[in-house]
Specification:
It is built from 8 helices and 6 strands, in the order ββαβααααβααββα. The protein has about 200 residues and is α+β, with helices and mostly antiparallel strands. The protein has 2 domains: about 80 residues, no CATH class; about 90 residues, no CATH class. The strands form 2 sheets. The chain has a 3-stranded antiparallel beta sheet with strand order 2-1-3. A 3-stranded antiparallel beta sheet has the order 4-6-5, with helices on one face. Strand 1 and strand 2 form a beta hairpin. The longest helix is centred in the C-terminal third of the chain and has 20 residues. The chain is elongated and about 70 Å long. The mean pLDDT is about 90.
Length: about 200
C-alpha cells in the first residue's frame, strides 16, 4: 500500500489517498481537493509514505493529473502490496541499482524482482565483507593475512557486482553474482519458509 498526501496551489492543507485506489476513492479525494482550490492543474504530491524507500522521488516526478500516470501509480502500489519485507528491500535495492527514468521503469523492475538477490546479513560494507569471507565466497590467503580488511572486501565486491545496500541487506542482480552465493541465499530462504510453515 502507498499513502499519498496531495494539495493544490500554495495551500498547506493536505488530502490523503491510499493506493491502489478505486475510481470512487479517487473522486472523493479530488472532491476534497476542490474544497482547497479549484485550480486542478496545481494538484501536486506533497508526501509519499511507502514500505519501499525511494518510491517517493519517482512519484513526485509524475503528473498526478494525468490519468495514465495515476494508473501506473496504482499498478506500482499493487506490486508493493503483494510483497513481504524482503521483497520490499529487494525492490529498494533494484531501484538503486538500475537507471530509473519514469514510472514505466519502476513497473518493469517491480515485475522482475526475482532477478535480484538479497543478502540480509549484509546491511553495510563491512558486514558484506564479513559475510563473503565467512561463507568462502571471497577467498584470501590466511597464511599471509591474519585479519582481513572486511571493509575493503565489501567495497570491492559491491563495485564489481553493481550492488546496493538497503536497511535489509545487500541487493545485486542474480546474473552478476556467484552461483554458490545464489545457492546459499536460496537455501536460507527455503529454510525460513519451512520454519514459518511449521511455526
Amino acid at each position: 500500500m502507498i499513502k499519498l498526501y496531495l494539495t493544490r496551489g500554495n495551500s498547506r492543507e493536505k488530502v490523503c489517498i491510499f493506493l491502489p485506489a478505486t475510481p470512487g476513492e479517487v473522486g472523493e479525494a479530488w472532491g476534497s481537493l476542490d474544497c482547497i482550490s479549484g485550480d486542478v492543474a496545481s494538484t501536486r504530491i506533497v508526501k509519499v509514505v511507502c514500505d519501499v524507500w525511494g518510491i517517493e522521488q519517482h512519484f513526485k516526478n509524475a503528473d498526478i493529473n494525468d490519468s495514465e500516470q495515476f494508473k501506473k501509480m496504482n499498478q506500482i502500489a499493487e506490486v508493493i502490496g503483494s510483497l513481504k519485507n524482503d521483497g520490499c528491500r529487494i525492490f529498494e535495492g533494484a531501484l538503486d541499482i538500475e537507471d530509473v527514468r519514469d514510472l514505466d521503469d519502476v513497473i518493469n523492475i517491480g515485475g522482475r524482482l526475482d532477478q535480484y538477490i538479497l543478502i540480509s546479513k549484509a546491511t553495510s560494507i563491512s558486514e558484506l565483507g564479513v559475510f563473503l569471507v565467512q561463507s568462502s565466497i571471497v577467498n584470501f590467503d590466511k597464511s599471509t593475512i591474519s585479519d582481513p580488511d572486511y571493509t575493503r572486501i565489501g567495497v570491492e565486491y559491491g563495485l564489481k557486482h553493481h550492488g546496493a545496500y538497503t536497511p535489509g541487506g545487500f541487493v545485486a542482480r542474480r546474473n552478476c553474482v556467484e552461483q554458490d552465493l545464489i545457492n546459499m541465499v536460496d537455501k536460507d530462504i527455503r529454510q525460513k519458509s519451512c520454519e514459518m510453515k511449521m511455526g
